[in-house]
Amino acid sequence: MTTTPNQTPKTQEMLLNMGPQHPSTHGVLRMVLTLEGKKIIDCSLIIGYLHRGIEKTLENRSFLGGIRYMDNADYLSPMLNEIAYVGAVEQLMSLEPPRRAQYIRLLVGEMQRIASHLVAVGTYLLDLGAFTPVLWTFRDREGILSLFEALGGSRFNVNYMRVGGVLHDFPKGWLKECEVFLDTLEKNMAELEVLITGNEIFEARTQGVGYISPEQAIAYGLTGPNLRASGTYWDLRVNRPYMAYREVPVQMQVRQEGDCFARYKVRIQEIYESIRLCRTVLDQLPGGPIGARTPIALRPPRGETYFAIEGSKGELGVYLVSDGSEYPWRAKLRGPSFVNLQILPELLRGHTISDEIAIMGSMDFVLGEVDR
Question: Is residue 36 in a domain?
Fold first, then answer.
């Protein structure tokens, strides 16, 4: 700050690098902030530090071999990534999975949505200075990962989906364990809300901060909880139902405030809704095969397709082009984290650095899905 006699103080602008090692960036994201004092004047996002190369990897793997690599995109939602990928291959082949396989996908997909939202809420509160919530949310996420391990053999990179169905049916006692876990989770969620929702410090940091209007959200292509928190009724499970969602209706969770608190609250509400959907599947799970008969070497006919699902962070789409061989000629992912990230500079202008942490954490992006 510089001053001269009889003049008001003038603040000089300063460039500040935040990331790519900052813990609150949730990955290797670099932000170049232009500051005037502690006020953010401008922001430039710099990505590309992770270099996953997933799309080119998919083009050099067979259609079956690519399933496992989808786990690495949004690594907090591997099951949902796999569902989007096999759905695109099945659409290329005009293949409809059996009803039981579709219900199994719905169940594990909603459990994965819960796990992703738990990480989003827990790490968000950690960013804002609260340590207990992240311990509680990761404890409940561990229960989901243990069920995935019993089902597919792996906790994290599950590799459970298959073109035409799933890898294994439920092992003995798994459904009962899942039911018990859902009951425990619902009780734990009530305790978590007592700890967070209504906390005056949390409300002061999030209410009225980082407002996104419905028009802004649509213009920037936002999807998922970030869009629904701004009062826009759009959920692919409802508006364009796919697979078992045609039979199991989803109650869309929407709020009108459009701020950081609303985005947090939508994710909490969606956890409860996913618990309800999982219980519906447990009650209505049909019998029959878990997969359609497919050749060992998949060669979808020539053509192109785009298949999208409602991922934990928004519209997760897979675009595939087949030339009739065992390998995709072209693979392209529509990662919601990448699209949702572009509104961040617009949201940060005029806010302070402390608000920056609250706004960025409320967007819930994963850099593995940004640097595909």
Answer: no
Q: What is the SS3 assignment for 167-201?
A: CCCCCCCHHHHHHHHHHHHHHHHHHHHHHHCCCHH
The answer to the question of residue 132 being in a domain is yes
- Report the alpha-carbon distance of residue 147 to residue 177 in Å, rounded: 8
- Kindly state the tokens that stand for 12: 């000089």
CA separation (Å) from 341 to 9, 46, 216, 364?
Answer: 35, 11, 13, 9
For 108, other C-beta atoms within 10 Å of its C-beta total 26
Quote the CA–CA distance of 73 and 58 in Å, as a whole number: 12
* 41 falls within a domain: no
| pLDDT at 4 exceeding the cut of 80 | no
Instruction: Write out the two tokens for 238.
Output: 């409802």
CATH of the domain at 112: 1.10.645.10
State both tokens at 183. 């009951």
The one-letter code for the residue type at 344 is L
Backbone Cα Rg of the chain: 22
Q: Which two tokens stand for residue 312?
A: 């934990």
**Number of domain units in the chain:** 1
**Structure tokens of 30?**
């670099």
pLDDT at 232 over 70: yes
Q: What percent of the chain has pLDDT over 90?
A: 86
Integer Cα distance of 34 and 36 in angstroms: 7
What is the sign of the dihedral through the CA atoms of 142, 162, 279 and 268? Answer: positive
Helix (H) or strand (E) run with residue 54 in it: helix 54-59
- Residue at token pair 């061989």: 325
DSSP designation for 258: -
CA angle 205, 206, 211 (to 5 degrees): 130
Residue 289, in any domain of the structure: yes
351 token code pair: 């806010």
The whole domain housing 150 covers 53-365
What percentage of the chain exceeds 70 in pLDDT?
A: 97
Sign of CA dihedral 171, 65, 315, 133: positive
